[in-house]
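Dear support,

We are seeing what looks like truncated structure output for some complexes. This example has three components. We would appreciate it if you could run it in full and send us the complete token output so we can diff it against ours.
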Amino acid sequence: MRSLARETPLILGLALLAFMVAVALLAPALYPSNPLFSNAPPMQPPDWAYPLGTDHTGRDVAAMLAWGTRVSLLFAFGAAGISLVCGTVLGAISGYFGGLVDDVLSRLFEMFNIVPRLFLIILVVAVFGSYLWLTVAIVGLTMWPSNARIMRAQVLTLKSRGYAQAAIVSGAGPFTVLFSHVVPNGIGPVMANSMLQMAYAVLTEAGLAFLGLSDPNIASWGQVLYWGQGFIASAPWMIIFPGLAIAMLLMSFHLIGGTLQERLDPRQQGAMA
Amino acid sequence: MSHLLEVAGLRIDFTTRRGSLGAVNDISFTLRAGESLGLVGESGCGKSTTAYALMRLLPGNGRITAGKVLIDGKDIVAASEDEVRRIRWQDIAIVFQNAMTALNPVRRIGDQMVAALTEHQPVSRAEALDRARAIFEKVGLSPSRLMNYPHEFSGGMKQRAVIALALMCQPRILLADEPTTALDVVAQRQVLELLAGLKAEFGLSLILISHDISAVAELCDRVAVMYAGQIAEEGPTRETLLNPRHPYTRGLVASIPSIYDEITTLSSIEGVPPDLVNPPLACRFAPRCPHAQPICAQVPPPMVEVAPGRRSRCHFATQFDVLIAGKEIANVPT
Amino acid sequence: MLRYLARRILQIFPVVLLAVMMNFLLINLAPGDPAVVMAGEHAPVEYIAELRKSYGLDAPVLERLGTYLVKLMHGDLGYSFAYRRPVLELLLERAQATMLLVLISQFFSILLGTWLGAYAARHHNRIADKLISYGTILLYCMPIFWIGMMLIMIFAVKLQWLPSSGMTSFMSFGRPRWIDIAIHMILPATCLFLHTLPIYAKLARASVLEVAREDFITTARAIGFSERVVYMRHALRNALLPTVTVAGLSLSALLTGALLVETVFAWPGLGRLMFEAVSARDYPVLMGGFLFATLLVIIGNFIVDVIYTYLDPRVIYS
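Here is the complete output from our reference environment:
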């Protein structure tokens, strides 16, 4: 009984994400040369040749943004993936075994939640250097506590269910029970949270680049914004378009994640029935 | 003597995903000042919906689609939102089913009572507080606990506090929607005794909604038995329950061990109430009625007056003894 | 109450210790000389040598950690050579500007966000609700520093109404100092306000919707209170509880937002200091800033907890 209007947010979100993925995949075909080479007149406002204009050194903003899509998606999926794995494993162990393990891990989740993440990430990247993969890893490693907390709560309610008990009685080891019976059934809310984490990862990348902490040899959305800062008055297209790109990608994650969350919330389901 | 409350031809529909649900269908009854009326029936029969409609408190998907609710001659159904708000709590107040959650958890009980009174009457906070103290004593609570929060009260105390809140504006009509279901047996007794005492003392006009027939028998002058959104039978409590004129009343009474000592047989009604999205076209009780005749599935029974002040919605209300005796019925109504 | 407070204060230490350990770990894991990391890249050679001696950087790890902890406990967060001042002094000075910005913007954000959310809930599924819901999501998806640059583009460059950076002007044109600061604060505060507004609006909407289903709301309606009173006085008060909780939990996100906003508007707070320290590779300031921000979040959380116990009488101090 779900009408199309009810599905609009999900469809819109998936369409936006599909568009972004397509741009990322097609970037090498659309703009074969290195987007960081200057081969256009500088400070061109948007026109037919350069639909998003050019920057102060004559680089095509559209090319940089197209290639930047790859960086943003790498951050989204890479960092959220790391966070998903760490969070799920640690949260599941904490919830399943309880006792001292749970006490220690829960405390750790709490403490990690309090620490201001961007301050820590800035510090690490400043000390170690702005390598792309290192930054992805650090962003991922600072995000896992919320996944862990959700997974822990899921395991606590699911481990007493029939199928888990049946598996235990049939002699399966604790890790088998946990990761082949309990976790797959409880992963839903963690996935919904992961969509929001992807949005956060993209924002963090942009923020770091904006602070001058991204690899200057890679074109990314935040990097273009960083360069554009000095040209707010003379080249507003350097600011407007990367921001819109970020907002669009974030919107897709929020629309998909919001729908997931709504579907998974038992109370919302009750209201729909 | 004019009626304090008059309900005529009331119909309430709920919009659901499966279509329109006629929760209440053509209900009429009256209440005189000082009188008490019990609304009984199984859950889902529309008794609580009726009560909510008297205050125009239906949930968003419910609507009054026909009929009148006259309080002192003023029609609640046609009144504006502001008029209804003035009538609420002043003319008609309600004691909700679940006292545990009916009070705001983050405000002191005394404050909630004071706010209710000052909303309607031009009194100072001190005067309102005096009144709250007096009422607290009346319902058997210590006035010193007025400044407590609801979570500091036990279940029985909370129900008393909810009753006290309802009495704050001295309403002319008090609705009590299953006031004892959430309580343990001892507290149930105490609350019933409290209501009986208040009724005697203030001459309160009371409508008690309950599935507990013994509570109604004890407290109410008259009873209306509801089934599937309609009143099946209505009359003076004792007469109606001892000598029913509708098979449903008979079944309902029989399913209770003993109200008055006279009835001792134990039987219950087979089957379940009908789906109100597609109710039976003729008699709504016919599918479950042990005495159903061919006509019951064909013609909707009218409400007939079987004696002064007694009404029944059964084709055989006037020949009820014959019907239940299973004898040949002489002149079948058509 | 006192015992509760004491226990809460004791809970602060593990978190601070965690942040300290992270700092210490970084110093020791960093490529190159740990002493350089501790001193910052601008430090003179003699200072680095002295640091190496005082920390005993050839000593075992545990001993070095001990030395580090003792120094921290004396409030010694190191020395910034970029500013030629002790780090703690610098942080305390800059924290004032940040606090001013954060407190003012959050005051309006919580107030208006909660009101918007409650208004949307009251008109659930109607046009106002849809507008507010989609508007807040849209706003939430915009990077805060981008919002900042757009504000500058519109109000400072195009319209030339407001200054785009700094906290005070060189020439005050005879204006009192606080007015000068207020004028400079409008854009950054608006930016931070817009950044957190959706969080509070979304939260208030969800919790008011949930509270609206509760029985005591029906009671309030039955008593005859107007819809406005029912929502604003009865539902909102109860719905505020999750708002307060989230306000506490999102303190670190708030500091993150402040960091970026201060960078855009050159607001001389902690965040701008961090930005400047990044450019100067002034590691002591970065590490001190991280510790300091952690401490601010903990203290903020603590204050929020106290507010919560005031708002919800059901909370027992145990």
